[in-house]
Hints:
With 429 residues, this protein is mostly helical. It has 14 helices and two strands, in the order H-E-E-H-H-H-H-H-H-H-H-H-H-H-H-H. It has helices at residues 4-18, 38-54, 66-88, 92-150, 170-197, 202-221, 224-239, 245-268, 285-302, 314-323, 332-361, 367-382, 392-402, 413-422; strands at 22-27, 30-35. The longest helix is centred in the N-terminal third of the chain and has 59 residues, at 92-150.
Amino acid sequence: xxxxxxxxxxxxxxxxxxVFFQFHVTVSGTLINLNLADPFAILALIAVIxxxxxxxQQPLWRVEKFSLALGAISLLMVLxxxxxxxxxxxxxxxxxxxxxxxFVLLGYLSAGYLxxxxxxxxxxxxxxxxxxxxxxxxxxxxxxxxxxxxxxxIQDVSLTPNFEGYSGNRNAFAFQLLTAVSLxxxxxxxxxxxGNKLRQPWQPWVFAFLLGVLLAxxxxxxxxxxxxxGVIVLLAARYAQLVDRRMLGLGLLFAALLWDxxxxxxxxxxxxxxxxxxxxxxxxxxxxxxxxxxxxLALELWRESPIVGIGLGVFMAKSPAxxxxxxxxxxxxxWILTEFGLVGAxxxxxxxxxxxxxxxxxxxxxxxxxxxxxxxxxxxIFGLVHEIFYQRxxxxxxxxxxxxxxxxxxxxxxxxxxAAKSLPSQSLV
Length: 429
């Protein structure tokens, strides 16, 4: 019995559910971010490595030279770690959270790869439904718990001040929701088409409701970057004709009704002393000042070593003396520039450009490429004011969007071209 496909399915779906559950642990005074999906992601990476060694077949991607790009980033990570080691010695943050963390991200990429490689378009669709449904259930569960807590109907339940699901950070939760939204938007034409074809007109309504729950949850996070990027993603999807207009309209309607309904319920109970609020407040000025301070300090440190950077984890190690407490750089491009220098920034820019060019080429026709386009837009804009390179869900979805299914690999280049042209307009890949 061939266990490869069942194991790939179980690993991929386990990661799709568990990726939303993060927690922090302190190891020797260093705060480490862990995720329930990490063990499954590591197993996925091991599975890909074993397939490489035993079948002598490296992972094949839809983007040419993507394996080379991953190798270049891995080499950069090792060199930047050594650069920091020579400067300040080995720190737990640089070793565990950054260097080892990168190889954990490769595990998430591998989990997505295994689903797409073994199950193709069907795997992408089921994976997207699992991811979106899990995110929606978390949003509804958090709303229910907060409503019950406001009504004094439950006790001994620990709820965070901000609406952040189980990610430990509302901005991280906002990015998770944006990722699920991007998948639903670009798959909406497929759901509408096949729902009508199979005489299941209720199907688009179900996914529109899921979209509405995710959008309402995005607003509840109070993440300014998340809400702004959400608006941009919706406009981009509509402008590029990546989304079914009816499903988008219904999703926005459901989001408004859900948000207003919860707000009216909480406000209506204020007179009885049982009022509650789900909505997270926006960040205060102190948070803005701290964010700008990290960016200014990052530029100052970059000037010390503009070509190769200051080294992996060096900013975190020096921040207590310079800012009074450990801090990360609140900007992904600035983090790359500061710790990897111009050389590293050029490599990352090349990888991003390569992915964007692939996504734009057929984004209007192929939902998988459209999803990649929206995901890159969200990553680029969100990353300007937050360090989101290590968001696991980004690499997980990236893997499933870029992997070539095994079924297509037996075709030569000319046959593959003919097969691609013969695919229907709503093909997922």
